[in-house]
Amino acid sequence: MSLNLQQLAKTLELEFRGDAGLIINGVASSRSARAGDLCFIQSKKYVDGVSASKCSAVILPPGLANAVEGKALLISENPQFSFVNAIKALGLEPQPRNEVAIHPSAQISTSAKIGKGVSIGAMAVIEDDVRIGEDTSIGAGTVVERSAVIGSQCIVHSRVMLGRSVRLGDRCTVHSGAVIGSDGYGLVDHEQQWHKIPQLGSVAIDNDVEIGANTTVDRGALDDTIIEHGCKLDNLIHIAHNVHIGAHTVIAACVGVAGSTKIGRRCVIAGGSKINGHINIADNVTITGASVVLNNVKQTGVYSSGTPLLENSVWHRVCARYKSLDKLAKTVTRLDKSSK
């Protein structure tokens, strides 16, 4: 689909500057853009790149409207969000399926209840008493175990595993390789042997949640593991049993959350962070990359830990000096007392 600049501005409810009849038919980065493409920038450091680009139009914030010359402009308080809406308006959003169909090789229990408009791919397995809502798409090779519930307008990509009694809300997306509802890591030590604790809970996921590729969400031991409305989880995340994640929290790749931890609403957990079990994190907390969270976070704010990258020789010297910190602290304390 192509739109002229005026049509696109009206659709996005944005002010525009430039030729109203300019045709926009694609989106691109400033590096790869061609004539007819739309780009966006959010900060001053990208002005030179977009100015040198071959793109025809740019979405940018009001403060940069006079910094870019030779391009048509769409002025937005949130350029990235407007760019997302432009992709949709131009009909460029990837479509998960071409038609409503159930592949002949799919194995579907006679007790399963399949809503209208559901698509089920090749070699998918739908077990007993599963319920799938209307207009949901189930990818090839996906397994939905007994008594699981999937809401309407969901996209479950290929090779996903949804365990027994897992509940998935409406408009959720689960990417390939995700495992939701595997057993939590519950063990008890008795007479120097580890014994498995039966995992009797499940996983309850609310509406509009996205789960990334190869992410795992364990079922609860007794109560459910819970992911509230609007959460977005990246690839390669592990959510342990009985974790509770508040609404609209986002978690980046390679994060591990240990069991029975509660994460508040609208939190941002950056990549590679590790979160201890049985702790609480308040609402609106941001944890920066590769942080290790060992205790409760009671106040809203931005938190960090870990050692930033150093040149190797400097890092070795710093590590060597760690061993002297205790001795140094004792010396300082002794000198402080003697000076009083």
Rg: 26 Å
Which percent range fits the helix content?
10-25%
Largest sheet descriptor: 10 strands, parallel
Structural class: alpha/beta
In the CATH hierarchy, what is the superfamily of the largest domain?
A: Hexapeptide repeat proteins
Task: Let me know the number of strands.
Answer: 38
Strand content: 25-35%
CATH architecture of the largest domain, by name, is: 3 Solenoid
Fold-level CATH name of the largest domain? UDP N-Acetylglucosamine Acyltransferase, domain 1
Give the overall shape: flat
State the low-pLDDT regions, or none. Answer: none
How many domains? The number is 3
What characteristics describe this protein?
alpha/beta, 3 domains, 340 residues, ten-stranded parallel beta sheet, 38 strands, Udp-n-acetylmuramoylalanyl-d-glutamate--2,6- Diaminopimelate Ligase, Chain: A, domain 1
Care to describe what's here?
With 340 residues, the protein is an alpha/beta fold. The chain folds into three domains: 87 residues, MurE/MurF, N-terminal domain (Udp-n-acetylmuramoylalanyl-d-glutamate--2,6- Diaminopimelate Ligase, Chain: A, domain 1, 3-Layer(aba) Sandwich), CATH 3.40.1390; 197 residues, Hexapeptide repeat proteins (UDP N-Acetylglucosamine Acyltransferase, domain 1, 3 Solenoid), CATH 2.160.10; 26 residues. Helices cover 15% and strands 28% of the residues. The chain contains five helices and 38 strands. The strands form six sheets. The protein has a ten-stranded parallel sheet with strand order 8-11-14-17-20-25-28-31-34-37, with no helix packed on it. Strands 10-13-16-19-24-27-30-33-36-38 form a ten-stranded parallel sheet, with no helix packed on it. The radius of gyration is 26 Å and the shape is flat. The termini are far apart.
